[in-house]
Specification:
- This protein has about 250 residues and is an alpha/beta fold.
- The protein has a single domain, classed as Rossmann fold.
- The chain is about 35% helix and about 25% strand.
- It is built from 8 helices and 10 strands.
- Strands 6-7-8-3-9-10 form a 6-stranded mixed β-sheet, sandwiched between helices. It has a 4-stranded antiparallel β-sheet with strand order 2-1-4-5.
- Strand 1 and strand 2 form a beta hairpin.
- Helix 4 packs across helix 5 and helix 4 packs parallel to helix 6.
- It is globular, with a radius of gyration of 18 Å.
- Bound molecules: adenosine-5'-triphosphate and magnesium ion.
Amino acid sequence: MIWPRRSAAAGAAAVADAKADALAEFHGPLISLRNVERSYDAGGQRNYVLRGITLDIERGDFVSIMGPSGAGKSTLLNVLGILDSGWAGEYHLAGSAVHTLPVKARTALGRRHIGFVFQQYHLLDELTVAENLDVPLSYRDVPKAQRQSLVADTLDRFGIVGKKDLYPRQLSGGQQQLVGIARALIASPAVILADEPTGNLHSSQGREIMDLFSELNAAGTTIVQVTHSEENAARGKRVIQLRDGWMA
Ligand SMILES: Nc1ncnc2c1ncn2[C@@H]1O[C@H](COP(=O)(O)OP(=O)(O)OP(=O)(O)O)[C@@H](O)[C@H]1O
Ligand SMILES: [Mg+2]
């Protein structure tokens, strides 16, 4: 198992406590979408990529989004991750009305609660592996010494200590994917959104990541993953099928 029990890491405990405080007051679906639509302008014509998405995700759920290529899975995950603001409809995250917030406040809300694993990794090219892992901690009030120990623990847990001073372009695709997963998890977010998180991993490594997700979910983390794999989807509690931007 890549991710041992947390008891040793004081930093992780501090981050987890801060998270619990932020969400303790809230009861109801952690994520609630009403009639969310996303479209792009294609030469004067509206091209709809998401349509009428209405969805509640409770705390502790583990949801798999499936559907053919181009169905809108990454688009939906980007909306959930507050990485996109060009959509219409309503989105409540832990009771906050995302659709009414200015973009800066939306971004801050997402950073506080969400860890995101990108389909294309999106590591920061100018930062080393260790510096990439530190980014989510820098968004939270984690003291510097705890940040350093959390980064060291995480490098160790993901078996990438030897890569810590390398830049993303010096890593294989699978290694970049692992760093992307480590970065999403390092600050113990309440919600993990993962877009094909094991797509570039060796099958045994992919299973370890899914074991890790199952463990985090059992401990209360809410997870939404996009996957083409029936085996990975079976790790979750339910499946949402997307077809041409509609929920089937
Ligand atoms: N910036 C954009 N401008 C115009 N169209 C876009 C843009 N981003 C995505 N799309 C379109 O939205 C549709 C859905 O794309 P999306 O990336 O969400 O698909 P997906 O289900 O994640 O597919 P895959 O399984 O291949 O990753 C596609 O038809 C795509 O061309
Ligand atoms: Mg995609």
